[in-house]
Amino acid sequence: MRKLIASIALGLAAFGLLGVSHAQDAAAPAPVAATATEAAAAPASAPEAAPLAAEAASAPAEAAAAAPVPNKGDVTWMMVSTLLVILMTVPGLALFYGGLVRSKNMLSVLMQVMVTFSMIVVLWFIYGYSLAFTEGNAFIGGLDRLMMKGVWDNAAGTFANAATFSKGVVIPEIVFAAFQATFAGITCCLIVGAFAERIKFSAVLLFMVLWFTFSYAPIAHMVWFWMGPDAYTSADVVEAMNGKAGLIWQHGALDFAGGTVVHINAAVAGLVGSYMVGKRIGYGKEAFTPHSLTLTMVGASLLWVGWFGFNAGSALEANGFAALAFINTFAATAAAVLAWCLGEGLLKGKASMLGAASGAVAGLVAITPAAGNVGIGGALIIGLLSGFVCLWGVSGLKKILGADDSLDVFGVHGVGGILGALLTGVFNSPNLGGPSVVSDWVTVSMVTGDAYSIASQVWIQLKGVLITIVWSGVVSLIAYKIVDVVIGLRVPEEEEREGLDITSHGETAYHK
Question: Does CATH number 1.10.3430.10 belong to domain 72-505?
Answer without folding.
Answer: yes
